[in-house]
Amino acid sequence: MSTPLTVRVLGAGVSGLAAAHLLAADGHEVELVDERFTTPAVGTALGLFSPAQQVLSRLGVLEEVRSISAAPEVGTLRAADGRILATVPAGNALLVSRSELVRILLDALPDRVTTTRRRIEDVRPLRAGADLLVGADGVHSLTRRSGWPGRPRARSHGLTVLRGTTALEPPEISETWGRGWLFGITPLAGIGTNWFACLPEHRTSSPAEDLAHLRRTIGGHREAIDAVLDAATPQRTLIHGIHTAPPVWPVREDVVLLGDAAHAMAPNLGHGANTALRDALSLSLAVCGNAEVRRALHRYALRRALPGQGWRLGSEAVMRLAMTASTAALRDRVLSGSSARGS
Ligand SMILES: Cc1cc2nc3c(=O)[nH]c(=O)nc-3n(C[C@H](O)[C@H](O)[C@H](O)COP(=O)(O)OP(=O)(O)OC[C@H]3O[C@@H](n4cnc5c(N)ncnc54)[C@H](O)[C@@H]3O)c2cc1C
């Protein structure tokens, strides 16, 4: 092991929890800071693929996560009229509630991780006396805004995402691409159905009104979607925009960015949390193998900058394809043609 470092981690989401755990397990002194250490009441699903599962295994929580996950084998991509555009193998993904995943990661934190509940307005005091500051503070990262001044902030894509859970048995596993909207249905173990929708920005102060707008926009296209929308309630619906952050080199001096702080991406390839977990493992391996912090961080950046930005760009391209209104008919023809040729 390298010389023990004093590490501060800002942000106790998936990336910060994993990094704090792995660095503490390597013998470093870790303080984890977040304005809240609570898990959201509505736990919509995250898909975790094999590389992320390997990180969970390192953290000793894979079997617990697996025990509360759904593991579908295949899903379909459909047009608004229900036509199958593509059959998509799930690739051993585990579908787990994000809030349950965060709870498991929190419970598994080694005792030697100190946790501090505080909203941070200035990262300089966090750097004072620390060998390393880990910015795992999400898409609007204060760490990134402070340490990378002049870089553009995260930007909105002018879209609204609604997602929720219902006790309904999932009528199918699918993602439907309409003209300027999408709707997804997956199982969520122990709950029933996880659903998500994306449409052009429309947000009021009332979740009930936002859900009603979604029903007006998307309802009536497909029976499976209508069944889920009928069962959805404002109390079990989360509503937010989509923001992505412009690319940055994720290391500066003794500060490193992880997860959404480094490469916030559109949700369309379902890889934000997967990439965040890989970041955490790479950071701990780089720090473990290098006595000198800045060299270790450089090594981390060389490993992670490209995959992070690759997923960010790929996710944005898929988001544009999924959400197009003007070329939706052409998109559907091309996709259904290529899936027919492949079968
Ligand atoms: C609709 C949707 C679906 C998704 N589906 C998937 C999926 O299927 N698979 C997948 O891999 N990913 C998915 N993602 C992405 C995934 O949720 C994120 O990429 C991931 O959770 C990011 O984790 P993080 O730890 O980097 O950041 P966050 O989870 O945002 O955590 C940041 C933490 O920092 C804290 N914080 C921030 N600023 C401060 C401050 N100033 N002071 C104190 N605390 C602070 C916050 O309280 C928070 O706890 C999806 C995202 C969306 C929006």
From TrEMBL:
Pfam families: FAD_binding_3, NAD_binding_8
Family annotation (SUPFAM superfamilies): FAD/NAD(P)-binding domain
GO molecular function, one term: monooxygenase activity
The keyword Oxidoreductase belongs to this UniProt entry's keyword annotation: yes
Highest taxon in the source lineage: Bacteria
Positions of the FAD-binding domain: 254-284
Keywords: Monooxygenase, Oxidoreductase
UniProt keyword Oxidoreductase, yes or no: yes
Alphabetical list of InterPro entries matching this protein: FAD-bd (IPR002938), FAD-dep_Monooxygenase_BioMet (IPR050493), FAD/NAD-bd_sf (IPR036188)
Name the record gives this protein: 2-polyprenyl-6-methoxyphenol hydroxylase
